[in-house]
Design brief:
The complex is a heterodimer of chains A (about 325) and B (about 325). Chain A is of the alpha/beta class and about 325 residues long. Chain A has helices spanning about 45-55, 80-85, 100, 110-120, 125-140, 145-150, 160-170, 190-205, 215-220, 240-245, 250-260, 320-335, and strands spanning about 5-15, 20-30, 35-40, 65-70, 75, 90-95, 175-180, 210-215, 225-230, 235-240, 310, 315. Chain A has a domain at about 5-90 and about 210-260 and about 270-335: P-loop containing nucleotide triphosphate hydrolases (Rossmann fold). In chain A, β7 (about 175-180), α8 (about 190-205) and β8 form a beta-alpha-beta unit. In chain A, α4 packs parallel to α7 and α5 packs across α7 (about 160-170). The two termini of chain A are about 40 Å apart. Helices cover about 30% and strands about 20% of the residues of chain B. Chain B has eleven helices and twelve strands. Chain B has helices spanning about 20-25, 60-65, 90-95, 115-125, 130-145, 160-175, 190-210, 220-225, 245-250, 255-260, 300-305; strands at about 5-15, 30-45, 50, 75-80, 80-85, 100, 180-185, 210-215, 230-235, 235-245, 310-315, 320. In chain B, the strands form two sheets. Chain B has an eight-stranded mixed beta sheet with strand order 6-7-8-3-9-10-12-11, sandwiched between helices. In chain B, a hairpin with a 2-residue loop joins β9 (about 230-235) and β10 (about 235-245). Classes of the chains: A alpha/beta (about 325), B alpha/beta (about 325). The interface between A and B is large, with 46 and 48 residues.
């Protein structure tokens, strides 16, 4: 296992008409090769912006990113655009949410898979690149790849387009894949196929995978470690089994309580929602950003910024009452 | 059992797709897409019936056809003794005081230039229910019913989050005091923490107002909490229908079983690495012969490839359309 990503205090500010807006605040996590880290959060929590900040791809003019984003020994946040271009697509590949619109509709599938290989000099000739594209398409489960190489995206279903995007991401033998909601646009049976394909490839090739999702089910089934985001900040990081059995942040607990489940005995007809709504980033509450919705908030939670701190070996939480939560879970389990 | 509130028989909807000039010249005519294929079901007073299926299964067309937002090609929809499909414009408008719809996308289903007060007053006016002070009182009552503060009335849709907009959509549907609601994916566009709020609201409204609901959804886990009965659609047909308990504990159609297995479980101690259902739904322009699911079904045999299975009753509350349903009893 080698350390691929070491992110410390990465912060992205974008200018808006109402003034600067901190969309990613103090992002801190690590990711090793062969590891799948889930980045979960609801819409607007900053998870997509976090990925884009890592790669210098924030889609807003004049945004500023500070902090440290070490990939191996390079600080991505300080690299020049030219140096970043050599890493992006070559060593770190990114998959976006909507595969159908990620592909260029007037380019043949084969050309879209080979583009990065030729640009990064992975293959010398077009012929070599095409035969590698065929092999990749077969690897991601596209039937009859030799003939489909010259098809256009509209001739593929949504699930098949997502497979093409995976093939293109793998084209340069990257060490790290950042997948931003790779299955959200797909139907549940196809989502299941794509997710299992992605996880199998990640394990077989020993890749690091940063999987962005809003679905706790997807996290449970694919990630070894999870980071939970709320209002632009990571509020908790833990190994997946620990996070699901005993969350150290009340937001995580709330998320777990409000997902409808298929796998538990149904003893009540009601779900427990999290009251209220996520805050507006332009008008954040003082202190803990979750305190207005938190069932265990105290006076102290309303004061000053709350740091992300170690609450147990290998676990981080941005909650002042993490220890009390752990005690409560223990009491509930033993009861 | 009492007679159903709504009795749907043989409902079919075929869309014609205009072909290109080549199709016209060769005289082959427009292509036909059958979105709903001979769907029959009953909905009883006060129940919540959910229809689940993937995109293209016809579930949305079903909901829209019941309210004639989409004109069905064939079939009958009997509601309180009258066939909705035979009503002319004026009686249909009257019938819609009983039948209302909640739309999927709270971003596009509200007029951005109307305040919430105007949106709700319009419904009251069009249906001749109330004007002036009585309308204002009704608007306040509706907002209270869906858990929004009275100040919300003078704001515009852009001031609200997705969950709040969905509450406004529900208030608009309730404005005419309907007895039957069709909710098309009521929570698919809102975040999970808000989703539970909306589902609880629907459950409360049923209890308070004695509503009957048809809920259309793609997410089985959402449906489980809210439904009395669940119907599963695949390729324009209902393939299985049962009480919520039975669908989730002993599904018998291989497609239902696959859907349940494919939903990612929020439990890291129970990992699965096998794919639930291989392949993708067939093209609706080129439907397979026999059972539409045979192209993906692990149980498919020669009969499935030629003969379309009919819905068979396994139990008074459980019907399934599968030739091999006596073999599909194992489900974990």
């Amino acid at each position: 296992m080698t350390l691929l990503l070491d992110i410390r205090g990465l912060t992205t500010v974008i200018p808006t008409r109402k003034g600067p807006l901190t969309v990613v605040d103090d992002l801190t996590f690590t990711l090793e090769s062969g590891q799948c880290l889930g980045l979960v959060g609801e819409s607007g929590s900053g998870k997509s912006m976090a990925c884009r900040s890592l790669l210098g791809l924030v889609p807003v003019a004049d945004s500023t990113t500070s902090g440290q984003a070490l990939y191996k020994s390079n600080d991505l946040a300080k690299l020049s655009e030219t140096a970043l271009t050599k890493i992006r697509g070559r060593e770190i590949a990114m998959m976006v949410q909507d595969a159908v619109s990620a592909l260029n509709p007037v380019w043949r599938i084969g050309d879209q898979i080979t583009e990065a290989m030729l640009a990064h000099g992975i293959t010398r000739t077009r012929g070599e690149a095409r035969s590698r594209a065929v092999a990749l398409m077969r690897q991601v489960g596209i039937p009859d790849p030799e003939n489909r190489l010259d098809d256009y995206p509209h001739q593929f279903s949504g699930g098949m387009c997502q497979r093409v995007v995976i093939a293109a991401a793998l084209a340069c033998n990257p060490q790290l894949i950042i997948a931003d909601e790779p299955t959200t646009a797909l139907d549940v049976t196809v989502q299941d196929q794509i997710l299992k394909l992605l996880i199998a490839l990640q394990r077989d090739l020993g890749l690091g995978l940063l999987l962005v999702t809003h679905d706790m089910g997807v996290v449970a089934q694919s990630c070894q470690r999870v980071a939970v985001m709320y209002a632009g900040q990571i509020v908790e990081i833990a190994d997946t089994p620990d996070l699901f059995t005993a969350p150290h942040h009340p937001y995580t607990q709330g998320l777990l309580d409000c997902i409808p489940r298929l796998d538990t005995a149904e003893d009540s007809l009601r779900l427990t929602p999290i009251n209220g709504m996520p805050p507006d980033l332009a008008d954040l509450p003082r202190g803990c950003r979750f305190h207005p919705r938190c069932p265990i908030a105290t006076e102290a939670c309303r004061e000053g910024p709350i740091p992300l701190r170690e609450t147990a070996p290998g676990r981080l939480s941005r909650c002042l009452r993490a220890e009390d939560m752990a005690a409560r879970t223990l009491a509930r389990v033993s009861a | 059992m009492t007679s159903p509130l709504m009795d749907i028989r043989g409902l079919t909807k075929t869309f014609s797709l205009p072909g290109g000039p080549l199709r016209r010249l060769t005289g082959r005519g427009p292509r036909k897409l059958t979105a709903l294929n001979d769907v029959s079901l009953q909905i009883h007073e006060g129940e919540i019936l959910s229809i689940v299926g993937e995109s293209g299964s016809g579930k949305t067309t079903l909901g829209r056809a019941l309210l004639r937002l989409e004109e069905p090609t064939a079939g009958e929809v009997d509601f309180r003794g009258q066939d909705l499909l035979k009503l002319s414009h004026v009686p249909l408008l009257a019938a819609r005081r009983e039948l209302q719809m909640i739309f999927q996308d709270p971003w596009s289903s509200l007029n951005p230039r109307l305040s919430i007060r105007q949106t709700l007053a319009e419904v009251l006016y069009v249906h001749g229910i109330a004007t002036g002070a009585r309308a204002q009182a009704r608007i306040a009552e509706l907002l209270n019913l869906v858990g929004l503060p009275p100040e919300a009335a003078d704001r515009y849709p852009r001031h609200f989050s997705g969950g709040q907009r969905q509450r406004i959509g529900i208030a608009r549907a309730l404005a005419v005091a309907p007895s039957f609601l069709v909710a098309d994916e009521p929570v698919s566009a809102v975040d999970v923490s808000v989703q539970a709020q909306i589902m609880n609201l629907l459950i409360d409204l049923r209890a308070r107002l004695g509503l009957t609901m048809l809920i259309i959804a793609h997410d089985l886990s959402v449906v489980r909490y809210i439904s009395d009965r669940v119907g599963v659609m695949y390729f324009g047909r209902i393939v299985e229908m049962a009480t919520s308990d039975r669908i989730f504990s002993s599904p018998r159609h291989p497609y239902t079983q696959g859907l349940l297995r494919a939903a990612p479980r929020p439990d890291p101690s129970r990992l699965s690495t096998t794919v639930a259902i291989h392949g993708e739904p067939p093209s609706p322009l080129n439907p397979p012969k026999g059972c539409a699911f045979h192209t993906r079904c692990p149980w498919a045999d020669a009969r499935c490839r030629t003969e379309t299975p009919a819905l068979t009753e396994l139990h008074s509350d459980h019907t399934v359309a599968c030739h091999n349903h006596d073999q599909t009893t194992e489900f974990t």
